[in-house]
Amino acid sequence: MRKKYTVIGIIAALLFLIGIGVTVRLIKKEPDPEYVFTYAENQSDGYPTSKGAYYFASLVEERTDGRIRIVVYTSAQLGREADVIEQMRYGGVDFARVSLSQLAEVAPELNVLQMPYLYNDSDHMWSVLEGEIGDHFLNYVKEIDLLGLSWYDSGTRNFYNSVKPIRNLEDIKGMNIRVQQSELMIDMINCLGANAVPLSYEEVYSALELGAIDGAENNWPSYEDTDHYKVAKYFCEDEHTRVPEMQLCSMHTWKLLSEEDQKIILECASESAEYERKLWSERVEESRKKVIENGVQVTTLSRSEIARFRSKVQPIYEKYCGNYMDILNKIISQ
User: Fold this and answer.
1) What is the C-alpha separation between 37 and 254, in angstroms, rounded?
2) Alpha-carbon gap, residue 272 to 44, rounded angstroms
3) Whole-model pTM?
4) FRET partner for 27 with CA separation of 20 to 30 A, picked from 60, 89, 104, 170?
């Protein structure tokens, strides 16, 4: 009996060792990524643009069989958008999703796409971005060592405040309104008779809560996601700007990739943009419903009142687009 157990033991041991060998070989067959890239996103994990980034990263990893892995850092872990753009220009960050307002600070021609009260509606904007003009701008940023991969939606930007409803031009006069660190946005607020207060995105809630500012301007999901509706209960649907956002790749990173991988990246970026736009539309409705249920008072400007607002910001068109009026006129007439 003793000999029988010894033979069984030997067979078991051999099977165990064979199993280890198979496992080791299987592990070795799974290649390590050839590249591990960074992706900067300043919104929280559940935000549509963040979900779009994660989707983009998963598509790329899947279609390169794991050779390219993109690690997404949300909630501004890699810095503010302005800092991320600067890092990308020198290869410090590989991919990002940024607002055109920030990008236009270093690529001024992009101001053409974000003039206040420029687009008639969402369809008008997307017809521009998905055509010749949009393609021109995706490539235009090569001049600052970046490559535009696709356009992301960020809806319409509207005013909200903690003081009173905004129903006309007179109501906004004298208000201290937070804006992005963008000269264009500063000028827009000042033209409307309010006072522009440049602040980083992370400081807005406390500034509203403490009364350091009266209001701010952003889209529905941002207003809800940041809880700004809890300290600024008046929301005005004036849709002053439709600022598209660009998914970017550092040219330093782009040049590392083969033509085949570049094609895969572009395809995945385009698919992630379609995915993000769908999520965005759904999120806008959810956010709007949620804040109204929590006591937010919404006003919508009449067409005649919007015309008054538009007339006040006309000087901005010439200041920021004087050299690009031909493109601006194409957009207006499209």
Assistant:
1) 11
2) 17
3) 0.78
4) 60
